[in-house]
DNA sequence: ACCTGAACACCGTTCAAGT
DNA sequence: ACCTGAACACCGTTCAAGT
């Protein structure tokens, strides 16, 4: 950071990074101009030199997250030729490690006018990767879209459930079973029971 | 509500119902003691006669929701003998109508110490209904648990995505396809591509 | 160009006092 | 038994003034 007379001179990016740290820890609601100012060693008033208001620094923080934690990761995945391997790599990357707190915080407020466009961009990008996996497996565009939808809702729901400790302890141990189900042939089990 | 000298006398239930209305509209964060007091025509101070603090009225509101909107609906479902029909009824009930706002608001903060126990109770109850569908279809307890997990994460993720208008417009039109996938036989499509 | 400091509004919480 | 009203703290936002 730049300084003047031994004092910090802040940029919008400094504020956005501090806000992203708060979002990751405690969600967007926990972002407080007063607290950010305290952490950065300035008064609240100076915040409004850089941003129009509280919402704007949240947007800036989420765009930071979008660039660094999402868009940056996809090219490596897309390089995997075998679609099943690609699906496995994708799901393992999101299933095994601890939940991405910013991801959850974002999903939780995905209808917020501030958050909605960023959420839609990220979702569409990821869904396209999933659709390609299934068309690469030989499914039609429509069938692939259905499978991609199921896979992505699985991903989102899984994260939701993982947040809650009591529920998370019951999640399936073996991700491979989920991959089997997501790539299963269409005909039903127990077809004879169908109406 | 009871009255005295023409003035309203409020019970904890009156406050909880007002809070639930707010949660349904705008989520738990929007619950404000001052606003509730305004709606009910009393001052903020009187709130603290009924509740220890803001969190307590949110818990009371969510327990109201749990009783009226969740527990009450399950017995009718469990009465459907054919497991596929039961799954279809269950998914249609949650897929077709507009998103339950309280449901989403709850899921969004399912790790909140205030919300976690209620969320865990509701989730476990619903997951048990799903597991039974799959054991009724002839699957082992373990296999049924995996399918139930996939079905429930589908449900949660679907609601998440539905919140965002841009994404919701891309959801699969025919729920029946999702039911096919959830009840599909285990062997993979395109088995030859597997490593 | 960036920050301070005072002001105002909103709201959670407490508590003595009222009926 | 339930409510009022004043007080205090926290924080978003504005803005004139400082460097």
Give a verbal description of the structure:
Two copies of one chain form a homodimer. Chain A has a two-stranded antiparallel sheet with strand order 1-2. Residues about 185-195 of chain A have low confidence and may be disordered. Chain A is elongated. Chain A has eleven helices and two strands; from the N terminus they run E-E-H-H-H-H-H-H-H-H-H-H-H. Chain A is mainly α and about 200 residues long. Chain A is about 65% helix and about 5% strand. In chain A, helix 1 crosses helix 2, helix 1 (about 10-25) crosses helix 7 and helix 6 (about 85-95) runs antiparallel to helix 8. In chain A, a hairpin with a 2-residue loop joins strand 1 and strand 2. The N and C termini of chain A lie far apart (about 70 Å). The interface between A and B is large, with 58 and 58 residues.
């Amino acid at each position: 950071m730049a300084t003047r007379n031994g004092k910090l001179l802040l940029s919008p990016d400094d504020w956005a990074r501090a806000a992203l740290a708060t979002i990751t820890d405690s969600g967007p609601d926990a972002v407080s101009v007063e607290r950010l100012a305290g952490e950065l060693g300035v008064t609240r008033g100076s915040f409004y030199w850089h941003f129009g208001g509280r919402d704007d620094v949240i947007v800036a923080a989420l765009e930071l997250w979008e660039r660094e934690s999402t868009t940056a990761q996809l090219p490596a995945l897309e390089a995997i030729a075998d679609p099943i391997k690609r699906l496995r790599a994708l799901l393992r990357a999101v299933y095994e490690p601890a939940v991405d707190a910013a991801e959850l915080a974002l999903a939780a407020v995905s209808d917020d006018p501030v958050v909605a466009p960023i959420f839609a961009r990220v979702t569409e990008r990821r869904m396209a990767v999933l659709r390609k996996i299934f068309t690469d497996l030989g499914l039609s565009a429509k069938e692939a879209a259905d499978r991609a939808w199921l896979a992505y809702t699985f991903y989102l729901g899984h994260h939701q459930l993982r947040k809650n400790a009591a529920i998370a302890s019951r999640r399936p141990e073996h991700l491979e079973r989920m991959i089997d189900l997501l790539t299963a042939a269409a005909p039903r089990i127990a077809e004879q029971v169908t109406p």
